[in-house]
Structure formats: C-alpha cells, structure tokens
Amino acid sequence: MSDLGIGLIGYAFMGAAHSQAWRSAPRFFDLPLDPQMNVLCGRNAESLQAAAAKLGWKATETDWRKLIARDDVQLVDVCTPGDSHAEIAIAALEAGKHVLCEKPLANTVEEAEAMTAAAEAAKAKGIRSMVGFTYRRVPAIALARQLVAEGKLGTIRHVRAQYLQDWIADPEAPLSWRLDKTKAGSGALGDIGAHIVDMTQYITGDTIGEVSARLETFVKERPVAAEHSGLSGTAGTQRGPVTVDDAAVFLATFRGGALGVFEATRFATGRKNAIRIEINGSLGSLAFDFEDMNLLHFYDAGDDARTAGFRRILATEPDHPYVGAWWPPGHLLGYEHGFTHQAVDLVTAIADGTDPAPSFADGLQVQRVLAAVEASSNSRQWQEIAG
Predict the structure, then answer these.
(1) Is 215 helix (H, G, I), strand (E, B) or coil?
(2) Do the strands 221-229 and 259-265 form a parallel or antiparallel pair, or are they unpaired?
(3) Which helix (H) or strand (E) holds 358?
(4) Whole-angstrom Cα distance, residue 193 to residue 247?
C-alpha cells in the first residue's frame, strides 16, 4: 500500500477533529492508500510542538509555505480561519498537492471562485480537492439522502432547517476570531448556517435559487480575549466591536420548487449544537436532530392510516452508510466519526482518480447562498442566486 503524506495547517478545534480522523480512518476502514500524519503547521512554535505530540504528528512547520513545499506532504488539510483559505488552498493546488479545506470554503464569493478555478485546473492534472462539510457523513444524514434519491419522499415541498448554539449568549463572552469579519467572513451565517445550507441541498439533491433574509448582531461590543481556545476563552480588560452577525434567519426557494425556512444562531440559550432538519414531500417526510444523531425519523404517506406515523430508524446497522466498519448494531457513533468518514471518502477518491464531494464548486455554490442572504438582509429584498 502506498503512503499518502498529510500536512495539516491549524491545530485548534478543527485541527484536533481532523487529527482524530486521520488517526482513526486507516485503523477501521480498509483504505487503498495509507494516510501518514507527517506534518503539523501553526504559528506558535511552543504550542505547536505540544499539539503535535498530543495529536500524533511526526514533524512541525511554523510556515505553511514550507509545509506545502515538503516532499513528504501529498495532501494539505486546511483548518485555519477563513481569511487564509484561498491563499493556502490555491498555493497547495498549484504545487500539485491534494487539498481538504474546512468550511465555509472562503470569506467571499470572489475568493471561492478563484479557489474553484484552481481546483478545476488541478483536476486536469489528477489533483483532487474537497470542502469539509462534515455533517454529510453522519450515517443518518447519508441515509436520508439515499431515501430521497430513491423517491421515497416523492416531490419535495418543504425544507426546514435550524442550527442552534448558545456559546456567545453571555454578552461578556470574549471576542474571538469567529467574531471578526476580516477573519471569519460572517458570524452564525457562515460558521453554522453554511452547514444547514449544504445539508439540505445534499439531502434533497436540489439547490437554493433565491432567498429573503435578516441578519442581526445582538451584542455589538465584547471584551477582547486575553487567551482563547476552541469556542471558549478568558476575557481581558479591553473591549472591541463585534463585526459579524449573531443570528441569521431566511426564507428560501429551491430550484425544484420546494420552500425552505432556515435559522442559524449562537444565541439559542440552552442549545449547544442542535441541528434540526425536516423535509416534507408528496409521499413522505424525514426528520433529523443532531442532539440524537444516530436516529432518522421517516414517515411513509402510503402506510395504512390506522398504524401510520413516523418510524424511528436507528442508523447503526451494517447496511447503513459507513457503519459496517464500526461497532455492532445499536452501539452508537458520535461527532468525531463524521470527520473519519470524510477522510475515508477523500483518500478513496484520490486512489480511484474520481472527484470527491463536496467539491470546491459545491462550496462556491454555498458561498453564493451566504452572500445572497447577506445582500438580502442589507436590501430587505429577495435575492436570486446564480445557477
């Protein structure tokens, strides 16, 4: 088996999740290539060394350009804030490296377009790229996609999606890069709203054509973080402005005719990571809640009315997507498994010479939806999205 050298840029929340995936993937799945955790990159040399030892990386670099130039790196995994995605990913693709880039793909449509063009040019040379919309890889969500593709729901009429968190509901929670538009691009909209845009488009096999939206920033100023790690931090004495949205709500029309209602907020007090999807069609419905992520609820409108109702599908059978490599039925999977499945799919596509999904073009389409939501909120008008 040939080795596939991995270079990971970023070692905080997402970097740790991706590291777990690269460690686990070859130990549970029979992969055509053997991922090697060769290089971890970050700016602080001392913290970087500690992270590499903890997460299992063989070597370190403090300059991402040096990581890309290394002969022992064939795949560059980008887990940095959004303001650096375009520069790093394009440089890696032009250097002949495969690329996995965290979501959202970029901070602007223009950056996403440049990244997609670079990905298309690299594809002609056998270089693959993928954007990390990891929730696609939850077995229950992948099963939902299969059921829709098989026609179990008939014509899709309604799509409802929420992503609810509360980690900055406290007005004294400190500023982080996620609250800085120059680094993050947007707030709840891009950070978590992007996920439910991708998930619903993936499940339905359809794309959003127009939106009507409202963004709101409830807390306009916060203490500057004295130190920060993941989603938590310690407040300092200085204060600074919040330059992104705290919440996003929007109506959507899918190109196939379905109506959508979307909500993304980091102010849903008591909700830590609630992702709720419901899809209604002419023949049935599906419902999913990430707080019970191994379950998919399915309603078949053709059932006898006396016994009809939503059935509870525990998506842990060997025949369910990805599950056969893990545990016996009923032994539940968790948040980290989606990242492992992402690594498996990307490595398999690279070995097979096929295009992994979601592609940078898929990420660009989501970016266009995000931009249209922001434009609609500013103009108070419906915004169409380029097809």
Answers:
(1) strand
(2) unpaired
(3) none
(4) 9
- Write the CB contacts of 90 (distance below 8 Å, at least 6 apart in sequence): 114, 115, 118
- Residue 243: exposed, middle, or buried by beta-carbon count in 10 A (0-12, 13-18, 19+)? middle
Q: Which residues contact 50 (CB under 8 A, 6 or more apart)?
A: none
pLDDT digits (tens, 9 = 90+) for 255-298: 999 999 999 999 999 999 999 999 999 999 999 999 999 999 99
Residues in the chain: 387
CB-based contact 231:167 (threshold 8 Å): yes
Q: How far apart are CA 365 and CA 194, in angstroms?
A: 10
Mapped onto helix, strand or coil, the DSSP state of residue 241 is: strand
Structure tokens that stand for 81 in this block: 């804030």
Q: Quote the pTM value.
A: 0.96
Provide the total of helices (H) and of strands (E) in the chain, helices listed first: 11, 17
H or E segment at 295? strand 295-300
- C-beta neighbour count of 315 within 10 angstroms: 24
Rounded Cα–Cα distance for residues 14 and 8 (Å): 10
